[in-house]
Design a protein that fits this description.
Radius of gyration of chain A: 21 Å
Radius of gyration of chain B: 16 Å
Structural class of chain B: alpha/beta
Oligomer: heterodimer
Distance between the termini of chain A: 56 Å
Shape of chain A: globular
CATH class of the largest domain in chain A: Alpha Beta
CATH architecture of the largest domain in chain A: 2-Layer Sandwich
Order of helices and strands of chain B: EHHHEHEHEHEEEHH
Bound molecules: iron/sulfur cluster
CATH superfamily of chain B: Aconitase, domain 4
Structural class of chain A: alpha/beta
Number of domains of chain B: 1
Chain lengths: 428, 167
């Protein structure tokens, strides 16, 4: 008789959280969550939904993290009032892990402050909550009613997803970064490849990738429809977390003989700088195809690509150069910690000298919530994750997605540009 | 008690995302403005929609952000239901959580032209094209999820559960 197939990371985590020995894709389970992330876009309404049915407590205040990041600093009196409400709510509910405006974007802050751990089941009130899979957690997004439910009960229904695996081999060339890799995967496999599925990134290039790169991939996997997107927790993960939490952390991965619905491979060395054209993240081509596209605004920011390393690589390209006349260059570090690091290592100075406008750590114009939106007829290029019509401003604007390097090169030229020619030492 | 929805179908293609149903640019605006922006990518919809009409869509309906305002706006607009080839994951969850009927049904795009009459028998996961007299089976939801919708949504269910626990 054939041995029983092993479990993928998603299956292992859901089985544990549902109190079962094993689970199979397609099964529905009720599982206890280890962590709940709530942001200013949903937390207030979720609290209200609970109050509306007479409930005013949460299952475990220490397992809920609240972040204010979508509209920071408050841009209207209504938002200011909403933020004030959140500050009062977290006090009342006894939630200690609260990060006020300016600390950073939730998907940067949760890893940075050591809240997401390998093997955990996490839900967040945001579709890019898949990001914490970079640390080996099964993490996914929910809406406000489910947020209310899970904040009160600590549990939620899940359908066990099948898992697809991407084996990453080879090395990314200079001037090419994990964002390009992800856009290349979207180009090949489309936004539907991971619908309702869990994604595992593996192979030598995944093992060699630093935490920032993993966070970028796990983040934008949401654009593939992924429910979870995970990297095995290895030495890189443990080193990252040991600096950030006292909690015990252990390596975590799939079982050896785990069964995947599909396994795809990609040789990273073949990836060139990629650009996603309006209005879909998988409308992707090589950067050279867009050389004639003029840009009104170039934006480096968002939970996808505003890490310290992102700013540093952009700065290497901008060094000694200026933003093109007629183009606006906007830089918003993902967190306060990133901003401090970018100040200390000099990358922020380079970007500001080149002509960047620098914003408060937070979401900025990524979802059209804060300042920096595009007007009708305008074209932008951004290191963000979605270029849906109207997302970053007017429905009559055009948004291209690219790596921080490509955004920086485009700011220099005022049109979409290949970052490789601006690398120190040239294209080689 | 079974949930049956009947209405005139509006058709949408693949990858209709939540930004189209709850655009950032009308957030916190009065409902009269929001209403006009919902599903603005379909030129006829904003002007021609009548309460009770239903939506037939392609793959990945409701992909994108976690904003519950997406299904909530459709519900408030009085869209009867959405039947699609497939849904964005969170959109499906959010719809169930607020008791807005949705059904996954392979082949639905080909089974309907815009304006045809649709009937959804939610509990049995069955769709009829009343204009053509044809019928299609969708993917049934497990009983736990049907129970959430039958209770009127997750908050109603929680209210019942909390009341039962207090007793
Ligand atoms: S940066 Fe953009 S994608 Fe990330 S959480 Fe904020 S609005 Fe969402």
């Amino acid at each position: 008789m054939a041995a029983k197939a092993g479990m993928t990371m998603a299956e292992r985590i859901l089985a544990r959280a549902a109190g079962r020995a094993r689970v199979k894709p397609g099964e529905f389970v009720t599982a206890k969550v280890d962590l709940v992330m709530a942001n200013d876009a949903q937390f207030p309404q979720s609290c209200k939904a609970l109050e509306d049915i007479g409930l005013k407590k949460v299952f475990d205040p220490d397992r809920i993290v609240v972040v204010i990041d979508h509209w920071v600093p408050a841009n209207t009196p209504m938002v200011a009032e909403m933020h004030r409400g959140i500050r009062a709510q977290v006090k009342e509910l006894g939630i200690r892990h609260f990060y006020d405006a300016g600390v950073g974007i939730e998907h940067k802050v949760i890893p940075e402050k050591g809240h997401a751990l390998p093997g955990q089941l996490i839900v967040g009130s945001d579709s890019h909550s898949t990001t914490y899979g970079a640390l080996g957690a099964a993490s996914t997004g929910i809406g406000l009613t489910e947020l209310a439910y899970v904040m009160y009960t600590g549990k939620l229904w899940f359908q066990v997803p099948p898992t697809i695996r991407f084996n990453l081999t080879g090395r990314l060339a200079r001037g090419v970064s994990p964002k390009d890799l992800m856009l290349a995967l979207l180009a090949r496999h489309t936004t539907q490849v991971a619908q309702y599925k869990s994604v595992e990134f593996g192979g030598p290039a995944a093992a060699a990738m630093d935490m920032e790169g993993r966070l970028t991939l796990a983040n934008i996997s949401s654009e593939m429809g992924a429910k979870f997107s995970m990297f095995a927790a290895d030495a890189t993960t443990l080193a990252y977390l040991h600096a950030r939490t006292e909690a015990p952390v252990h390596a975590f991965g799939p079982e050896d003989d785990a069964e995947y619905e599909a396994v795809h491979g990609i040789d990273c060395s073949t990836v060139e700088p990629q650009v996603a054209a309006p209005h879909k993240p998988d409308n992707v081509k090589n950067v050279s195809e867009f050389a004639s596209v003029r840009v009104d605004q170039a934006f480096i920011g968002s939970c996808t690509n505003a890490h310290a390393g992102d700013l540093q690589r952009a700065a290497a390209i901008m060094k000694g150069r200026k933003v093109a006349a007629g183009t606006r260059f906007l830089v918003i570090p993902a967190s306060h910690e990133v901003m401090v690091e970018a100040m200390k290592n000099g990358s922020l100075a380079v970007l500001v000298e080149a002509g960047a406008m620098v914003g408060t750590p937070g979401c900025g114009p990524c979802a059209g919530g804060s300042t920096g939106v595009l007007g009708p007829g305008e074209t932008g290029i951004a290191s963000t994750n979605r270029n849906f019509k109207g997302r970053g401003g007017s429905t009559e604007s055009f948004l291209y997605l690219a790596s921080p390097e490509t955004v920086a090169a485009s700011a220099i030229e005022g049109r979409i540009a290949d970052p490789r020619k601006y690398l120190p030492g040239g294209m080689q | 008690m079974s949930l049956v929805v009947r209405g005139r179908a509006w058709k949408f293609g693949d990858d209709i995302n939540t930004d189209y149903m709850a655009p950032g640019f009308v957030k916190n605006q009065p409902w009269e403005l929001v209403k006009k922006a919902i599903l603005h990518v379909h030129p006829g919809f904003t002007a021609g929609f009548r309460p009770g009409d239903v939506i037939v869509a392609g793959e990945n309906f409701g992909c994108g952000s976690s904003r519950e305002a997406a299904p909530a706006n459709l519900k408030r607009l009085e869209v009867g239901c959405v039947v699609a080839e497939s849904f964005g994951r969170i959109f499906l969850r959010n719809s169930i959580a607020i008791a807005f009927p949705v059904l996954i049904c392979k082949g639905i795009s080909r089974a309907f032209e815009e304006g045809e009459q649709l009937e959804l028998d939610f509990d049995r996961s069955l769709v009829k094209n009343l204009t053509r007299g044809t019928e299609l089976a969708g993917t049934p939801l497990p009983p736990e999820l049907v129970r959430i919708v039958a209770a009127g949504g997750m908050m109603q269910l929680l209210k019942q559960e909390a009341a039962a626990a207090a007793r």
